[in-house]
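Technical annex B. To support the medicinal chemistry partners, we prepared a structural model of the target in complex with farnesyl diphosphate, based solely on the information shown next.
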Amino acid sequence: MSIPKHVAIIMDGNGRWARKRGLPRSMGHKQGVQAVRETVRVAGEAGVKYLTLFAFSSENWGRPEDEVRDLLGLLKIFIRRDLADLHRENVRVRVVGARDNLDPDILSLLAEAEERTRDNSALELIIAFNYGGRNEIARAVRRIAERVASGDLDPRTIGEETITRNLDTADIPDPDLIIRTSGEQRLSNFLLWQAAYSEFVFVSCLWPDFDRKAFHEALAQYGGRERRFGAVEPRGVAIGSA
Ligand code: FPP
């Protein structure tokens, strides 16, 4: 079975998981972190090389203040508690998303996680934090425009590659498979540019219930797909990523 090199996941349904049990939403997010741990483990074992998790979107700031505080707190706890384990497991941690207007303590934790694990090579765990696809593209365009304005870049040479290279994901291959849990079927501003040829698997279980079995089922669905990248033959001219 072909294993996707890069799996990206929209972890949805924490709130509903909690509500079904009469628990506060924060408990759903807390249980969601357990699912994150299991998912990282299974991804590594399955041979996935890049795993991107949508942890906090640029739109999530609009949630009630205490929920935002819970989500940021869980991310900090995850980095503090799990960084040593991730490092031991040879996992490289990276963060994509806007870095402006973030608390200095979060910024330094994220920077420490990236710095400490930068030479690891078993799996890249990419945490999309304060991330929005349109915002990422806008920031890339701004960088490109600045280089044009300073005379560093000839606008006639701007192509798709120029955009790709200026995104937060510059040296990360496009996701082969995007999974969204909880039965919702939308992209919600996640990896807009990068998802051009991704396969989508929508699973009905809520994120805290996403376990080894659910992950393997999603991988099996991917394995049965025929990817053509806009070409005719299944393994003909593969335009874009492999
Ligand atoms: C969606 O559920 C989930 C989120 C907005 C955040 C996901 C965050 C975590 C799993 C924890 C922190 C992440 C890491 C990497 C440690 P929802 O609240 O939108 O659920 P609902 O749609 O049922 O209300």
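Notes passed to the chemistry partners:
The mean pLDDT is 95.
The helical segments are 14-20, 25-46, 65-88, 104-116, 133-149, 160-166, 212-223.
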